[in-house]
C-alpha cells in the first residue's frame, strides 16, 4: 500500500514537472534566454570591431560585455535583465535535458546530454553575471577561465591527451556549426509561417552568416587548446577574446577580425529573432 501510494505521488510529481517544462512560463523563460544571448553576442562583436579598428583593450568576451553594460546609464537594470535571461536559458536547457524537447531528436540520449551541458554552461554564466550585479565579484575573462581549466587538467597523468581531445572536439564543433549554418539546418527550429517572405529571407541570412562566424570562433579556440596540449603549456589555451585577437594577426590582418566580429553581431541579432520565432 505504501509502495503504491509512493508510486502515485512520484507519478503526479513527474507529470507536474513535465507540464511545467512545457508551460507558457517556461516558453517565456526560453525566449528571455535567447534574447539575453543575442544581446551578449552583439556586445562581444562590437568590442571585437573596436579591437580591430583602434586596438581597444576591452575584453571581447562575456566579461568585457558585462563591464561595457555596467558603464551605461541603465547598466544596473540591464545587468539584472541579463541575469534573468540567462537564468531562463539555464532552466529551459535543464528541463529539456530532463524531459526532452519538441525537436525530432529531442528525446535522444545525445540530445539530452547536449542540453545538460548547455544548462550547466549557462548556469555558470548566470552565476558570474549575478555576482557582478550584486557587486561581490568581478567577471573572469574567457582567457583566464580557459587557462585555469587547462592548467588544472594538465596536472594529472594523461592530462595532455584530455586537453588535446577537448581541443579536437571544440574544433569539430566549430566546423559542425559552420556546416549547419551553411546548410540552413537552424530553420528546422524556426517556424515563421506568420512572417513575410522578406522577413524570412532576412532572418535566414542572419542565421547563416552569424552561425558561420560563431563556428569560426569556436574552431579557433579549439586549435589553441590543441597547441596547449601539444606543448603542455596552459598559457597557450585561449578564450574567445584571444581567439578573436589572433584573427587580426593572420595574413588578412584586422579585416578578418572585422568580418568575424560583424558576423558575431549578426548572430546576436539572429538570436533575438529566435527569441521571437523559435519553437520552444
Condensed summary:
The protein has 280 residues and is mainly alpha-helical.
Protein architecture, described:
The protein has one domain. About 4% of the residues have low confidence. The protein has 280 residues and is an all-alpha fold. The protein is built from ten helices and no strands.
Number of H/I helices: 10
Our estimate of the beta-strand percent is: under 5%
Tell me the helix content. over 70%
Shape: globular
Rounded to the nearest angstrom, the distance between the terminal CA atoms is 39 Å
Structural class: mainly alpha
Pattern of helices and strands: HHHHHHHHHH
Mean of the pLDDT scores?
88
Major sheet attributes: none
**Model regions low in confidence, pLDDT < 50 over at least 5 residues:** 10-19
Number of strands: 0
Number of domains: 1
Using only CA atoms, what is the Rg? 20 Å
Amino acid at each position: 500500500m505504501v509502495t503504491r501510494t509512493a508510486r502515485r505521488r512520484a507519478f503526479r510529481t513527474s507529470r507536474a514537472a513535465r507540464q511545467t517544462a512545457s508551460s507558457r512560463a517556461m516558453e517565456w523563460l526560453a525566449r528571455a534566454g535567447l534574447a539575453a544571448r543575442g544581446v551578449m553576442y552583439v556586445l562581444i562583436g562590437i568590442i571585437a570591431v573596436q579591437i580591430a579598428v583602434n586596438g581597444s583593450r576591452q575584453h571581447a568576451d562575456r566579461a568585457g560585455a558585462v563591464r561595457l553594460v555596467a558603464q551605461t546609464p541603465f547598466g544596473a537594470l540591464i545587468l539584472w535583465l541579463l541575469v534573468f535571461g540567462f537564468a531562463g536559458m539555464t532552466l529551459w536547457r535543464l528541463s529539456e535535458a530532463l524531459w526532452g524537447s519538441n525537436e525530432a531528436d529531442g528525446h535522444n540520449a545525445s540530445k539530452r546530454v547536449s542540453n545538460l551541458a548547455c544548462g550547466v554552461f549557462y548556469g555558470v554564466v548566470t552565476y558570474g553575471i549575478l555576482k557582478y550585479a550584486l557587486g561581490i565579484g568581478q567577471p573572469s575573462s574567457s582567457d583566464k577561465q580557459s587557462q585555469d581549466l587547462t592548467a588544472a587538467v594538465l596536472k594529472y597523468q594523461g592530462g595532455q591527451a584530455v586537453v588535446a581531445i577537448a581541443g579536437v572536439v571544440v574544433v569539430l564543433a566549430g566546423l559542425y556549426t559552420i556546416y549547419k549554418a551553411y546548410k540552413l539546418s537552424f530553420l528546422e527550429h524556426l517556424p515563421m509561417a506568420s512572417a513575410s517572405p522578406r522577413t524570412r529571407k532576412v532572418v535566414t541570412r542572419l542565421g547563416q552568416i552569424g552561425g558561420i562566424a560563431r563556428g569560426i570562433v569556436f574552431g579557433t579556440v579549439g586549435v589553441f587548446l590543441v597547441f596547449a596540449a601539444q606543448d603542455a603549456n596552459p598559457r597557450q589555451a585561449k578564450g574567445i577574446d584571444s581567439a578573436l585577437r589572433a584573427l587580426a594577426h593572420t595574413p588578412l590582418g584586422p579585416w578578418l577580425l572585422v568580418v568575424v566580429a560583424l558576423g558575431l553581431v549578426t548572430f546576436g541579432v539572429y538570436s533575438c529573432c529566435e527569441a521571437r520565432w523559435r519553437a520552444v
